[in-house]
Amino acid sequence: MRAVFKREMQSFFLTPAAYVFMGVFLALSGIFFIQGNLLPRSGDLTGLIAMLGYLWMLLSPVLAMRLMAEERYRKTDQLLFSSPVSLTGVVCGKFLAAAAVLLCTVGCTFLYALIVAVYGKLYVAEVAVSYLGLILLGLSFLAMDLFVSCFAKTQMTAVMLGFGANLLLWLSDLAAAAAGEGLIKSVLSFLSLYQRFVPFTQGLLSFSNVLFNVLFVGLMLFLSVRVLDARRWSEA
Amino acid sequence: MWYNKLSKSAENTGVKSRMVIFEGISKRYGSHQALEEVSFTLKKGQVLGLLGQNGAGKSTAMNIMTGCLAATKGRVLIDGHDVLLEPRAARRMIGYLPEAAPLYDEMTVRGYLRFACELKEVEKKHIAGHVQQIAEKTGLQDVLNRKIGNLSKGYRQRVGIAQALCGAPDVIILDEPTAGLDPSQASELRALIRSLQGEHTVIFSSHILSEVQSVCDRVMILHHGKVLCDSGLEELKKRENKLRAVIACGEGTLLPALHSLEKIKKVEVIRGGEPGTTQVLLTVSEEGAERELFTLLCAMQAPLLRLQAQEKSLEEIFLQTIGENI
User: Fold this and answer.
1) What order of strands is seen across the sheet that includes strand B304-310?
2) Which of A19, A141, A196, B320 lies deepest, with the highest CB count within 10 Å?
3) Mind listing the pLDDT tens digit for each residue in A37-86?
4) Has residue B9 been placed in a domain?
5) Is there a contact between B91 and A82 if contact means CB atoms under 8 Å apart?
6) One domain for residues B53 and B179
7) B216 CB-side CA count, 13 A
8) Residues B261 and B306 in one domain
9) Contacts of residue A11 in chain B, CB cutoff 8 Å?
10) Whole domain around residue B228: which residue ranges?
11) How would residue B1 be classed by pLDDT, with cut points 50, 70 and 90?
């Protein structure tokens, strides 16, 4: 797993993938910060962090698309599958690498908190909980996009599938409203990542929401391993 | 029976020397039967050539051997480890070069080989030395710090082979390693594969017959997912020999005499020889046919002007075997 993680990290930074992701994310978050905090002279970062949640939704497929789909496209997955590393090791190594890039990016946005702390008053606990929510949300999206990427043969399809899946999960409470009453409604509203994220941005730390995100990530990684394993039985 | 005598030693030493056991493997993709009941055993140090036309099932067989694919039926043992039940132990023994070399273009050759060593669980302190050794063996010393994406096809293929050698695996599986190389590169590669013989068990696929002839000591021909032929190379060539003879004797008296010989299966006359001589192509089945022929010609007082063994090329054997089985 360590070897996979290391190689994946190298690849992120040897190719433009990580730079593009971080660049776009940080540029947009910078604009949000200027518009929402600097110009109105506001020290409230929770609004900014809520906006960053939307950015995750849009950008995490870009980070995750190369993880499995690219290996499959370049047929480098055969090297991994014929080596002593287990499928779980491969999936976890890749997920952790992408997660590390995500954490680096989040780390860069701490600069905004620092600016607020220097020139105004920073509500540390509130911001910390918001950040925790943001990171958990990002990891959930990432895990799902990794899972979706296992089905795709090219990066393009992986991105499209990722967007679709993210939107559905993000807005599944809207879908639930449209679904009327019944089982589908309760399943969709249970799955809504947005409903789980909002309390964090209000500074509310709830154990069940943290657990939901952690279990969600675990489930997605588990399913990814199963998909990869199942492919050995069918693929040409 | 001979196997009763052997069975005891097989229990003690035989299992260990049997590196690869392929047991009744079948693979089905939907309605397409890619492999059907393929079985073979390879001893340590053997080089097996897997021959077959495109789509004969060579790559499928190799993917099953490495655990990249699961068989519909049957099992594969690598040094006694089932590739599906004990994947880690089995894959530790395997170095695999798939049909398309699994290369990461953005990495340097050194970085890539280090990664392959880490995957193969080479101890960290040995990795640098190991990579250097493999680079020397495969002629990659000069390009170690170059990006794989910038290398020529020949070098890329060598990097692929170097990757398969990482961790000094006992079994090396190469899927069409010389495909797309120019003749001199291909011959260098064959020399490399020959140098692995003895130390490693090598399985090597190709549709170029002369290549198999020059590298392997055992040949298996696959056709439509079935094994058509599995034997040693020498044995395969000996199966049916042809002799070309020029005899100073008229056709009329010679041919009936030749037909009377037991060990000569077929007599073909080749026209256009010098007058007064007969040129024939004899298909002989066993050893000692030459002696029979000489004795006959001596008795007939017909001088033998030329006798030439016509070695059958693998190509002929291949086409013949496939032809017989269509």
Assistant:
1) B264-270, B278-284, B241-247, B304-310
2) A141
3) 999 988 888 889 989 998 998 899 988 988 888 888 988 989 999 999 99
4) no
5) yes
6) yes
7) 30
8) yes
9) 104, 106-107
10) 17-236
11) very low
